[in-house]
Amino acid sequence: xxxxxxxxxxxxxxxxxxxxxxxVEPDDADMATRVSTNVSLxxxxxxxxxxxxxxxxxxxxxxxxxxxxxxxxxxTVEETAAHVERxxxxxxxxxxxxxxxxxxxxVREVDAMMEREGVSGAPVVDEDDVVLGIISGTDIRPYLExxxxxxxxxxxxxxxxxxxxxxxxxxxxxxxxxxxxERVPIVDEGNRLTGLVTMAGVLARRExxxxxxxxxxxxxxxxxxxxxxxxxxxxxxxxGADVVFIDCAHAHNLNVIDSARDIKAxxxxxxxxxxxxxxxxxxxIVDFADGIKVGIGPGSICTTRIVSGSGMPQITAVSEVADxxxxxxxxxxxxxGIRYSGDAIKxxxxxxxxxxxxxxxxxxxxxxxRVITMNGKRYxxxxxxxSVGAMNDGGGDRYLKEESExxxxxxxxxxxxTPYKGPLASELHQLVGGMQSGMGYVGAATIPEFKARxxxxxxxxxxxxxxxxxxxxITDEAPNYSPD
Length: 484
Ligand code: RVP
What we know:
The protein is of the alpha/beta class.
């Protein structure tokens, strides 16, 4: 019958990257990419917007490593704004909460204050915040011996090196080295204090030289919002979010598309729309979306395909969407189903610019939730946002048909546990290192080059068996491989 003349759709295990001539050493593969029209990352990796995966703590670490954390939406709108602000302030060059001294205070008082606030120096300002001097532990020490009741005015250094708001980290460091000082007050045209840059702050930022930052140097922030949550989208945007993700299980719903379009028109942040899994869906959103997220049913905790009988195996879904998106120069994110680094780089080969993972990060220290021990092994909770538990806790309307109190949910996700993994940075290191190996095998030094150069071969089930460790008993756990 006509109806059964169906096309085939493939997923990760159905394909492998064809090895090619190469001069690319994996370590040299450049992982920089775009996640949306205006936002670039240094790693093509996002953490899922799930309440057992991404809150501010994990998002900060993701951005410091070069990727992007997408905040879940099982929280109030106020909490969303607060989490975004935490991310944005985390690596701030200019401290805004400056501990200041007044010229009339005694040296003794300032000494106690600095001790209490945990700072080793403070700008001295008048009632109008005009900077008069700066006082440090070194200025204070001699006075503590002979004049602890003298005024700060006497003890402070009154030739202060200041800078303006637009100072760069490099300029600030140069100033500090040149004048042998550890802090530079930031002032406006009236010499009024607006902030402070410290040596310790600049050096801490240097430790994360691969971090994903906005043009002001703050870490990038991503936020999931429900398709009809204009208030959350606006709050996230006002708080400084770089990318807002319209978070929907089926974004080829025309009501969702209308609303996403409205949200896009209202906010400054980039708007990524998803999830979709077909060429037609991509065509319906590509004219206004800043990025398209792909994944109908591949997630490890997702039962959409079983419950609804609908879905698209992920490699085919990504490549259909990518064909459309590439023509409009819109980035694509492959979301869900990634178990190994090999899956992640296959998703990029299929046409994605970045990948999003949930289960891979849920077991890390930075993810919300406690470590639990079962049968002597350590786990952390991981649950689908369409699971009964997540929906009962609030924002799971992604999978909710109707808002009704008394009717039972029809979940499309499960509640589970995932092995405890330790720090996020080492998980990411394994993930990205494996992806870079893939680029080495294909001979591509950048993500765009890899997308163009990579080719797939089809794998039989015998080939799949051969791919995994086989015919041996594994004696030691590898950090990047644990077959189910
Ligand atoms: P995974 O990385 O395979 O654990 O998949 C994570 C993805 O699964 C999420 O980014 C989201 O797209 C999807 N998800 C989240 N909750 C559910 C559900 O309850 N069905 N699915």
